[in-house]
Backbone:
């Protein structure tokens, strides 16, 4: 079992098929779900699954995670890039080692897997996921 940080392979093909719209305000709804270190997530993840997800009972964690706020895709030079505003899980009691970003509007299709590098533990605290700056070299999602 492992959480391997990557853009999901199915997502790459689905971009070319026009199945993901990241436009702020009018695009699809993307969510971020948190996972235990025992989860298996990687390039072959195709859709959101609750297997290995942080339990919701008694944790204030909503099943399926929370919605993200899109930052509209843009370009710089020959690179297209897009990202999300910081995501806050409010007053949660949990431990997690990674996350899955997925398109909840369009079949819960997987976008990318995040590995936090270690287990994060919160006890009745906010957990804030801050994404890298939206730039051609740093954005969480980009095509070069």
Residues:
């Amino acid at each position: 079992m492992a959480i391997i940080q990557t853009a999901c392979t199915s997502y790459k093909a689905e971009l070319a098929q026009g199945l993901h719209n990241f436009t702020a305000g009018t695009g699809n709804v993307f969510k971020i779900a948190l996972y235990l270190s025992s989860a298996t997530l990687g390039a072959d993840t195709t859709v959101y699954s609750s297997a290995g997800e942080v339990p919701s009972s008694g944790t204030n964690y909503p099943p399926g995670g929370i919605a993200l706020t899109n930052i509209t895709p843009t370009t710089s030079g020959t690179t297209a890039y897009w990202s999300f505003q910081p995501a806050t899980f409010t007053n949660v009691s949990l431990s997690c080692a990674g996350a899955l970003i997925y398109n909840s509007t369009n079949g819960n299709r997987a976008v990318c897997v995040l590995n936090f590098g270690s287990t994060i533990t919160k006890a009745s605290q906010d957990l804030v996921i801050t994404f890298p700056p939206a730039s051609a070299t740093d954005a969480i999602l980009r095509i070069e």
Notes: The chain has a mean pLDDT of 96.
